């Protein structure tokens, strides 16, 4: 199953693949098995808006407003 990684990097930082090999991961890491344990859709609140994160049959993630 794919993992969902939330990392915040300043502009001009090394690409994720390079930084991940050399340093501790920054920010919060959530795994899709935790997010989708109750179904294929997760509601996300951000800036007063509700977004839906969906897990497809092809094991892809789709974020919609």
Layout of secondary structure:
Blueprint: E1 3-5, H1 16-22, E2 29-31, H2 32-35, E3 41-46, E4 49-55, E5 61-64
Can you walk through the features of this model?
The protein is built from 2 helices and 5 strands. The chain has 65 residues and is α+β, with helices and mostly antiparallel strands. A 3-stranded antiparallel sheet has the order 3-4-5, with no helix packed on it. The protein has a two-stranded antiparallel sheet with strand order 1-2. The two termini are 24 Å apart. 2% of the residues are buried. The mean pLDDT is 79.
Key terms for this structure?
3-stranded antiparallel sheet, alpha+beta, extended, 65 residues, 5 strands
Explain briefly what this protein structure is.
The protein is of the alpha+beta class and 65 residues long. It has helices spanning 16-22, 32-35, and strands spanning 3-5, 29-31, 41-46, 49-55, 61-64.
Strand residue content: 35-45%
In one word, what is the shape?
Answer: extended
Biggest sheet, open or closed, and with what strands and sense?
3 strands, antiparallel
Q: Using only CA atoms, what is the Rg?
A: 14 Å
Poorly predicted runs are none
Structural class: alpha+beta
Number of discrete domains? 1
N/C terminus separation? 24 Å
What's the number of helices?
2
Q: Order of strands across the biggest sheet?
A: 3-4-5
Report the helical percentage. Answer: 10-25%
According to DSSP, the number of beta strands is 5
């Amino acid at each position: 199953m794919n993992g969902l990684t939330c990392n915040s990097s300043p502009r001009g930082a090394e690409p994720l693949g390079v930084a991940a090999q050399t340093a501790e991961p920054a920010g919060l890491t959530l795994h899709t098995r935790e997010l989708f344990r109750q179904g294929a859709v997760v509601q996300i609140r951000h800036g007063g808006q509700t977004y839906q994160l969906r897990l497809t049959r092809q094991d892809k993630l789709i974020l919609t407003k």
